[in-house]
C-alpha cells in the first residue's frame, strides 16, 4: 500500500521553513509510528476473525482429520500449535510438534528511514496469502487466506493520523 497526502504549496513552504527539507522525515516520526502500530493491530484482527471482510476457507477435511482434530483447541485457521502422536516411515510411534508461527512472525521494519514495511519472513506466508498448489505432484490446492489485508477504514484512519499531525505542525 502506498499513501499520498497532498499539501498545499503555501503550507508546504511553511513546513519547509520550520523543519527544513522534506527529505528529512523526522518531523513525521509520530504518525509513522502510530500508523505501523495501527496496521499491526489490523493484521491481528484479521487473524482473530479468521479473515476480514470475508472469512478464510476452512481446512480441507483430510487435513482436519489428520492433524487439526488431534490437536484440539484453539483451533483457529493459521494459528496452529500443538503436539500429536504419529507413526513415522518405520512404523514406530513418535510425538510430532506442530507450530504455525505465521501470526507471530508478522513484523514491522523501517525502510531507509523514509517509512516502514509490514510483512513476514516465513517461507509459506506467500502461499497462505495468495493461495496455490502444493505437493510433489501438485496434488493439493491451498486457498488464499490473505492475512496482510487492510480494510478501507484502516487506510482512512492512517491518512487522518498524518493529516492531523501535519495540521498540528502548521499551527505551532
Search tags:
16% strand, 6 strands, alpha+beta
What does it look like?
By secondary structure, the protein is an alpha+beta fold. The two termini are 30 Å apart. The protein is elongated, with a radius of gyration of 22 Å. The chain has a domain at 9-57 and 102-171. The strands form 3 sheets. The chain has a two-stranded antiparallel ribbon with strand order 1-2. It has a two-stranded antiparallel ribbon with strand order 3-4. Strands 5-6 form a two-stranded antiparallel sheet. The protein has helices spanning 9-19, 29-48, 61-71, 102-105, 125-130, 152-171, and strands at 81-87, 93-99, 107-110, 116-119, 132-134, 140-142. The protein is 42% helix and 16% strand.
The number of helical segments is 6
Give the strand line-up of the largest sheet. Answer: 1-2
Overall shape: it is elongated
Number of strands: 6
Described by strand count, sense and barrel closure, the largest sheet is: 2 strands, antiparallel
The ordered string of helix (H) and strand (E) elements is: HHHEEHEEHEEH
User: Which parts are unreliable, with pLDDT below 50 for 5 consecutive residues or more?
Assistant: none
SSE diagram, text form:
Blueprint: H1 9-19, H2 29-48, H3 61-71, E1 81-87, E2 93-99, H4 102-105, E3 107-110, E4 116-119, H5 125-130, E5 132-134, E6 140-142, H6 152-171
Antiparallel strand pairs: 1-2, 3-4, 5-6
Summarize the structure.
The chain has 172 residues and is an alpha+beta fold.
Amino acid at each position: 500500500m502506498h499513501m499520498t497526502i497532498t499539501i498545499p504549496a503555501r503550507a508546504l513552504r511553511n513546513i519547509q521553513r520550520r523543519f527544513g527539507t522534506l527529505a528529512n522525515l523526522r518531523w513525521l516520526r509520530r504518525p509513522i509510528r502510530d500508523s505501523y502500530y495501527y496496521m499491526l493491530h489490523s493484521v491481528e484482527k484479521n487473524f482473530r476473525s479468521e479473515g476480514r471482510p470475508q472469512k478464510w476457507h476452512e481446512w480441507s477435511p483430510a487435513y482436519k482429520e489428520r492433524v487439526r482434530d488431534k490437536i484440539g483447541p484453539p483451533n483457529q485457521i493459521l494459528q496452529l500449535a500443538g503436539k500429536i502422536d504419529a507413526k513415522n516411515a518405520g512404523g514406530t510411534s513418535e510425538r510430532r510438534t506442530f507450530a504455525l508461527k505465521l501470526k507471530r512472525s508478522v513484523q514491522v521494519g523501517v525502510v531507509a528511514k523514509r517509512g516502514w514495511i509490514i510483512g513476514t519472513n516465513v517461507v509459506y506466508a506467500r502461499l497462505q496469502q495468495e493461495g496455490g498448489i502444493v505437493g510433489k505432484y501438485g496434488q493439493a490446492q491451498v486457498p488464499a487466506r490473505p492475512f496482510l489485508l487492510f480494510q478501507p477504514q484502516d487506510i482512512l484512519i492512517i491518512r487522518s493520523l498524518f493529516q492531523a499531525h501535519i495540521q498540528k505542525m502548521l499551527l505551532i
